[in-house]
Structure formats: C-alpha cells, structure tokens
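[Meeting: bench + compute handoff]

Bench side (C.D.) handed over the final construct sequence. Compute side (W.E.) agreed to return the predicted structure before the next meeting so the bench team could plan truncations. Sequence as handed over:
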Amino acid sequence: MADERIGFLGLGTMGAAMAGNLARAGFTVTAWNRSPGRGPELDDLGVTRADSPAAVATATDAVVVCVSDTPDVEAVLFGPSGAAEGARDGQLVIDCSTIAPSATRDFAARLAEQGVALVDAPVSGGSEGAQKGTLTIFCGGEPDDVERARPILAAMGKTITHVGPSGSGQAVKAVNQVILAGTYLGVAEGIVLAMKAGLDVAQVVEALGGGAAQSWVLANRSERMRTNHYPLGFKVALHRKDLGIALDMAREMGAELPVAEMAADFETDLVGAGHADDDMSALARVIRERSGLPS
C-alpha cells in the first residue's frame, strides 16, 4: 500500500526523519508542523505542506502524530483546526508520541465516535533510529487496526510489536524508559569508576562488550560520558517527561521504582541547569560532578 496517502503531524527531530522515510518508501505524504519551515529536506522528497492538522486529515487516508506530550496530542487532534475536524469514517490515526496510557484510551474513544481508529505506536531508538528507519515500535489497539498500520510503521521502524489493546503501547514505552534510566545510570557510574581508577576506558568498554554488562548504551553512549560531550540523540527533557508518565503509572498501581525516581530527580536538576536539550547520556554529568570530575 505504498501509494496510500499519509498525513504527518509534528516535524521535530524525530518526526521530520520519520516523515522522510515514509516519502522514500513511496507514500504520498502531507505534513504539518506548529512552527513553519521545519524539515526543509522534506520538500525535496515531495512532501506537501498543509496549514492545519484538519487539512492534513482531509487530504489523507491515515494520519501519523509525533509530538512531545499529552497536551500536544490533544491539541493536534481535538483543538481548533485539529485533525478530528477533517477526519472521516474509516480513517486511521497512528500516534507515535509518548503520552499517558489513560489519555490514549480517552483519545481513542473520542475518535471512535467519528468512526476513526487510533493505534498508539510510541517508538524507541532515538534520532539515529528515526533517521535510519530502524525504530522499535510498541503498538496498542484493535488487531485489525494495527495490521492496517503495520505497512506504514514498517517504513519507519524495524521491530513492530502489537502488545495489547488501546494504551498498551504507551504502557510498554513507559517500561522501556524506566529500564533505560537504570541502564544509563549504571553505565555512567561504571565509566566514572573506570576513569577514577586510571583505566583505559575504550579498552574497558571493549572488554565489557563481550560479557554480561554489554548493552546498547555501553556501546553507543559510553564515549560521550567519558568526554563529557552529549550531542542530541534523545533529549534529557523528553526522557524526564516520559519518566513522569511511568512514575504516575507506578503510583496508580502501587509499584516502587526507586532507580527511576532517582533518575527523574537528576534529570530535573539537569533541566534546571540548562541541559534540557542534551542527550540523556548527560545523566553522567551528575555522576561526574559527584565524583570530582568536570561536569
């Protein structure tokens, strides 16, 4: 179905790359972004620009949403000139944002009143995964709707898993972000300990990569932690927002997440210190500072 007309709402670091991959896959893409002019490279790929989410929905068969937070999703779907105004019976909305599972279920119910299906499909893999089309995608929704979304998602991601009914994709994304919080902190502590011990950090990382400590974070973010340089992959501020969702879920369900709570506190401090747009490997700044290294 590469000739299907796809709408895309949200052309940030992730969204612009994802919309570009849809166009490269042969989909006819119509896009909108709150701030005009984002993703100029999309023009060369034949992506059409619309002046509102409603106009995007009117011109397309399925609409992908990739914005920052729950209020942003609600605004582009149900606000003035939102996608719901241009949507029609039988249309599909795929939300790749990371928002609260309860909000997803509410949005799905509201769209269903118009005959519009919603698949929550949050992604993992950061800006690199968005650019390469190798994102991991967790899907929640009705099986038929997820299957309809799958060819669209396959243009943006590599691993696509239907994990349950509406909201389940968002719940799995929260679990993902909790695990990442612990992994980043663990790698940061290990790298700082290696530095303080006077070890060759690159050699340590290579050695650990062959054992049980191996991880994507160790392989791809340890050098940033060593050099104290954190170019964007996934913003500290966005991970802090995601941990807020996970911690809210934990409180509702009676789960204790002490490591995630600590990471959230660290990230709050980093945002306050002007590091909101650093890659989340900047968690190492906190460990470095506490250990007497430049931060």
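W.E. noted at the follow-up: The longest helix spans residues 168-196. C.D. will use this when planning the next construct.
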